[in-house]
Write a structure and sequence with these properties.
Number of strands: 0
Helix content: over 70%
Largest sheet: none
Number of domains: 1
Structural class: mainly alpha
Length: 300
């Protein structure tokens, strides 16, 4: 597979994650389904997707890990990121949550120092601070006009950043399949029982379809992402994460009637500019860091 095909897969992954987020927002905000139910079905159908994709023998072999504690902690961060994100999406516009999420690559760069020993240079640290400034612009503290749920979006971004760093760590000794399976497994354990407790039967076939599609869009997104990184280095693919700034607002406008504010656009420019600068620095060093498992949300 050529690099251009891998880039195409990366863009498809971003589209899948945009569909996942917009579907979760519709189910919680418009269809009025409990968040516990949405999360339970999201993780359960994701596991079912992997089970059917890899078939029983390979799937169960993927459960073998050299560090259950690391995988369990990684799963907790992924589940937390998704839960916080889905809650935030009930109150925030898609363009706002995706802009805050773009802070994740910057946080990964910051956390990589103390956790993985990959420290930032002074100029890279300034780029991270500029990215934080961009998120502050989106939040515009003290000026009003944005829901406090932005804190949930920040917590989601923090959790997914830790998840990405842990993925880089577990990829040193576990396979791609093992990392894929353990990510949503914690969500099944935690939210599948809660989904039964808080279950509300969807009132239309369309809502049923959206609910059951959560695992497909999430599972396909992760599969596209991992496959793309298998055929092209992470530094080449990293900038295409930011194509979400196109897909998210488009879906937000046509589905929810949301229009991005000038604050969101200005903040997005700061965050994306910071991320692209860090990407350029990595390419200049010629160090892809072997991050074949760098994942976007959800998200989550």
């Amino acid at each position: 597979m050529s690099h251009s095909s891998a880039i195409g897969l990366m863009c498809l992954a971003v589209v899948c994650f945009s569909i996942l987020d917009s579907t979760a927002k519709y189910l919680g905000e418009i269809a009025g389904l409990p968040i516990e139910q949405v999360l339970g079905v999201r993780f359960l159908t994701h596991i079912l997707f992997l089970f059917l994709l890899y078939r029983p023998t390979k799937f169960f072999n993927g459960l073998k890990t050299k560090s259950f504690k690391a995988q369990a902690l990684r799963s907790v961060t992924m589940v937390s990121a998704t839960a916080f994100n889905f809650l935030a999406l009930i109150y925030l516009q898609l363009d706002q949550t995706i802009t805050i999420f773009f802070l994740s690559p910057l946080l990964v760069a910051a956390f990589a120092g103390p956790i993985l020993g990959e420290w930032l240079a002074p100029k890279q640290f300034i780029a991270v601070l500029l990215g934080f400034l961009g998120v502050v612009i989106v939040m515009r503290p003290g000026l009003g006009g944005i829901h406090p749920a932005v804190i949930l979006s920040l917590l989601s971004t923090l959790a997914v950043s830790i998840y990405n760093v842990l993925t880089r760590y577990t990829s040193r000794f576990d396979s791609n399949l093992t990392n894929q399976i353990y990510a949503p497994l914690g969500g099944v354990i935690v939210f599948a029982p809660l989904a039964l407790i808080y279950w509300q039967t969807p009132q239309s076939a369309f809502v049923w379809f959206l609910l059951l599609s959560l695992g497909l869009s999430g599972g396909l997104g992760h599969w596209f992402l991992i496959t793309a990184h298998h055929y092209a280095p992470a530094p080449l693919l990293a900038p295409f994460i930011y194509t979400g700034i196109i897909s998210m607002p488009i879906i937000g406008y046509f589905v929810f009637g949301d229009k991005p504010s000038l604050y969101t656009l200005a903040g997005a420019l700061c965050v994306i500019g910071s991320g692209l600068y860090l990407w350029q620095q990595e390419r200049a060093k010629g160090d892809p860091k072997k991050d074949d498992h760098h994942e976007a949300p959800s998200q989550p």
